[in-house]
């Protein structure tokens, strides 16, 4: 399962995967599968006679948000596989691919600590899948979409709103890598976080449109966002970028979203709800500036959770028909881009 020589492909500009060393790999009690062939060999043996395989795709730098997905998978499946792969195709050339936190030894330690008992069956993560960039992109991968070659997956009509408006090729990269991961891992159930709500809903649509058997769209699950217990900041691998000072005001986005939610529930029209939220961010921006911190709002918006289209500015809750609404936003705190969202009304119809 573990190769003794780790390949260093030369042909790809971005090949740096989590800080892998042989001792790290050997010390892990969880099987580590660092090639597609080793994963397939493992699955053939491990899945034999088992009923379900849960899958949690990640980019590593694991925190309690990721681990909540792992625990959910453990509770619902005989086997649980976690992948760690920093996917070049979802980073624009100016984004943070090269500095994205890579903390493999710590990730493995955290995964090893996950254990739950279901009807007397003690379950721990069954395997960690750590593919190389070469394995995942046999035709090579450039972050510049114009010069990419090979096969890519686009979920049209659902990739240009919210996060897609700020990160135009992001969902193309995500849909492509998740398709590849699903083709290899072949999970019964897959688990994604509400933290990236558009991503999770879009992947559910992708599984439905492309008639995926593993997993079936109904088996793409969304797990609520894990937050810091003190200030409710959504946990994120990118929070590691924040300085102590920046961290102290990073909860501004959630506060602003919460204010917009309160206004919506009180019957205010959508535009008013957004203005209320933006005013809070502006206030925080001014205070932050006096402390030498730059805060910049990227967007705050309210979108239909099915079509992803922006809600009409005059729409009020009583006319929205009780369908779930995605209230989401992104804010820059220093050089760190933070995202968050709240799903208002009928959360249960999409978070399952
Ligand atoms: P990432 O490693 O950032 O690609 O995230 C891997 C998975 O973990 C995605 O499905 C994320 O939505 C999910 N995730 C990230 N942060 C959280 C969080 N705070 N709560 C729940 N899920 C999360």
Structural class: alpha/beta
Average residue-wise pLDDT: 92
Unreliable parts: 1-16
Number of strands: 11
Oligomeric state of shown chains: single chain
List bound small molecules. adenosine monophosphate
Beta content comes to 15-25%
N-to-C span: 34 Å
- Helical percentage: 25-40%
Which sheet architecture does the biggest sheet show? 6 strands, parallel
Series of secondary-structure elements, N-terminal to C-terminal: HEHEHEHEEEHHHEHEHHHEEE
Mind telling me the C-alpha Rg?
21 Å
Kindly report the spatial arrangement of strands forming the biggest sheet. 1-6-3-2-7-8
**Bulk shape:** globular
Number of helices: 11
Care to describe what's here?
The protein is an alpha/beta fold. The chain has eleven helices and eleven strands. The strands form three sheets. A six-stranded parallel sheet has the order 1-6-3-2-7-8, with helices on both faces. The protein has a three-stranded antiparallel sheet with strand order 9-10-11. A two-stranded antiparallel ribbon has the order 4-5.
What is the strand and helix layout of this fold?
Layout: H1 22-27, E1 32-33, H2 36-46, E2 53-58, H3 64-76, E3 79-84, H4 104-112, E4 116-118, E5 121-123, E6 127-129, H5 133-136, H6 163-166, H7 170-185, E7 189-193, H8 197-209, E8 220-223, H9 244-249, H10 252-265, H11 270-290, E9 295-304, E10 325-333, E11 336-344
Helix pairs in contact: 7-8, 10-11
The protein binds adenosine monophosphate.
């Amino acid at each position: 399962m573990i190769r003794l020589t780790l390949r260093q492909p030369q042909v790809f500009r971005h090949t740096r995967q989590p800080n892998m060393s042989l001792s790290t790999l050997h010390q892990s009690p969880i099987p580590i599968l660092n090639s597609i062939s080793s994963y397939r060999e493992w699955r053939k043996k491990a899945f034999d006679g088992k009923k379900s395989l849960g899958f949690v795709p990640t980019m590593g730098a694991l925190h309690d948000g990721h681990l909540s997905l792992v625990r959910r998978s453990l509770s619902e499946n005989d086997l649980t596989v976690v992948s760690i792969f920093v996917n070049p195709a979802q980073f624009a050339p100016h984004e943070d691919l090269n500095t994205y936190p890579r903390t493999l030894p710590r990730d493995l330690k955290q995964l090893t600590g996950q254990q739950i008992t279901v009807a007397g069956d003690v379950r721990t993560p069954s395997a960690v899948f750590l593919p190389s960039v070469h394995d995942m992109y046999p035709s090579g991968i450039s972050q510049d979409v114009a010069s990419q070659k090979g096969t890519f997956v686009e979920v049209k009509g659902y990739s240009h709103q919210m996060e897609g408006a700020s990160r135009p090729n992001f969902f193309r990269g995500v849909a492509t890598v998740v398709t590849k991961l699903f083709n290899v891992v072949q999970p019964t159930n897959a688990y994604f976080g509400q933290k990236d709500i558009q991503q999770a809903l879009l992947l559910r649509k992708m599984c439905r449109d492309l008639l995926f058997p593993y997993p079936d769209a109904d088996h793409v699950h969304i797990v609520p966002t894990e937050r810091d217990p003190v200030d409710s900041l959504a946990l994120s691998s990118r929070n590691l970028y924040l300085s102590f000072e920046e961290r102290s005001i990073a909860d501004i986005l959630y506060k602003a979203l919460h204010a917009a939610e309160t206004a919506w529930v009180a019957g205010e029209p959508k535009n008013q709800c957004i203005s209320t939220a933006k005013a809070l961010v502006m206030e925080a921006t001014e205070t932050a500036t006096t402390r030498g911190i730059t805060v910049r709002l990227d967007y705050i918006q309210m979108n239909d959770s099915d079509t992803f289209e922006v809600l009409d500015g005059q729409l009020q809750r009583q006319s929205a028909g009780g369908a779930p609404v995605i209230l989401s936003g992104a804010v820059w705190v220093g050089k760190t881009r933070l995202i968050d969202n709240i799903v208002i009304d009928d959360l249960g119809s999409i978070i399952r």
